[in-house]
Specification:
Number of domains: 2
Shape: elongated
Mean pLDDT: 84
Largest sheet: 8 strands, mixed
CATH architecture of the largest domain: Alpha-Beta Complex
Order of helices and strands: EHEHEHEHEHEHHEHHHE
CATH topology of the largest domain: Spore Coat Polysaccharide Biosynthesis Protein SpsA, Chain A
CATH superfamily of the largest domain: Spore Coat Polysaccharide Biosynthesis Protein SpsA, Chain A
Low-confidence stretches: none
């Protein structure tokens, strides 16, 4: 097994790829590491794939995957993780804002016992429109996840190989890989302040919507972790509460009418009371939630998750 796999998602970064791969190779050769560089072309519309092909001809440790279309960063990382052979897997962005000079220290921290090391861009070269929402996002994520990291969204991270082989990254879950690792039984998570560089080529591919999507993804990953194997515990609890609420209201309406009739009081038709319709809705929703829970249980017992991306071409992979 080689020492380090560097996994890099690529989307329209043709200008930066030669400099990035040369920089990584120089760092690896200087420290005597055995390594591979896995570049995943995520549906780029520029010459990124052609440039990657040219680089792989010069250095057979540069390996490439070409998606049939743009599937997103999570899919690219998942594909790279599945093929990574290094003892330690390093991820970074392709825009040269992550420094390959951090690799030796990240590698050492993992070899010293950590399962995951997350980069912390303490000094960022980004506009305030990105830094302020990022701080809020990271604060909320720390609170919900219980993992005390300052920068969940930093692309520069290091993992023990067995960590990336035991998690599946999909949707937009790349922000929460440390959380996925913790829930998969790898709780030794550390952090390292890393150098953040100003963008040299092109422009950022992410807008402000990523923070809203990130918050929604955090709710999703928390829900999936708690109830993926036991969906009836969630839907059944809500269904029981709803059904019992409707049932108790119905009992009250029946008791109130019988009591009023026996005491010669004026009686209002049950179907004329708003509480009747509230009870009816609660009973129906309760039954629906129970049925949803049963269907979810059947699905989780038989479902196998398939890759959510298609690979058109591979370069320099021997397996």
């Amino acid at each position: 097994m080689i020492q380090i796999s560097v996994v890099i998602p690529v989307f329209n970064e043709e200008e930066s790829l030669p400099e990035l791969t040369h920089w990584i190779s120089r760092v690896m050769d200087t420290h005597g590491f055995s390594y591979e560089i896995i570049l995943i072309n995520d549906g780029s519309t520029d010459r990124s794939w052609e440039v990657l092909q040219e680089l792989s001809l010069r250095n057979n440790r540069i390996k490439g995957l070409n998606f049939t279309r743009n599937y997103g960063k999570s899919a690219a990382l998942d594909a790279g993780f599945k093929r990574a052979q290094g003892e330690v897997v390093i991820t970074m962005d392709a825009d040269l804002q992550d420094s390959p000079d951090e690799i030796p220290d990240l590698y050492k921290m993992v070899k010293d016992g950590l399962d995951v090391v997350s980069g912390w861009k303490k000094e960022r070269h980004d506009p305030i429109s990105k830094t302020i929402p990022s701080k809020f996002f990271n604060g909320v994520t720390r609170w919900i996840s219980g993992i005390q990291l300052h920068d969940f969204n930093c692309g520069l991270k290091a993992y023990r190989n067995k960590v990336v082989k035991n998690i599946t990254v999909y949707g937009e879950m790349h922000r929460y890989i440390p959380l996925l690792a913790k829930w998969s039984g790898f709780p030794k998570i550390g952090e390292k302040v890393v150098q953040h560089q100003a963008r040299k080529y092109g422009y950022s591919k992410f807008g402000l919507e990523r923070f809203l999507n990130g918050f929604l993804d955090l709710i999703t990953v928390s829900f999936v972790h708690k109830y993926k194997k036991k969906p009836m515990h969630f839907f059944g609890l809500l269904g029981t509460f709803s059904f019992m609420t409707g049932f108790l209201i119905t009992l009250w309406l029946i008791f109130d009418k019988i009591y009023s009739l026996r005491n010669g009081m004026k009686v209002r038709e049950i179907v004329d009371q708003p509480l009747f319709f509230l009870a009816l809705v609660a009973l129906i929703i309760g039954v629906q939630l129970f049925v949803t829970g049963f269907i979810a249980e059947l699905m989780t017992s038989s479902q196998s998750k398939e890759a959510e991306y298609k690979i058109d071409e591979e370069i320099n992979f021997d397996f």
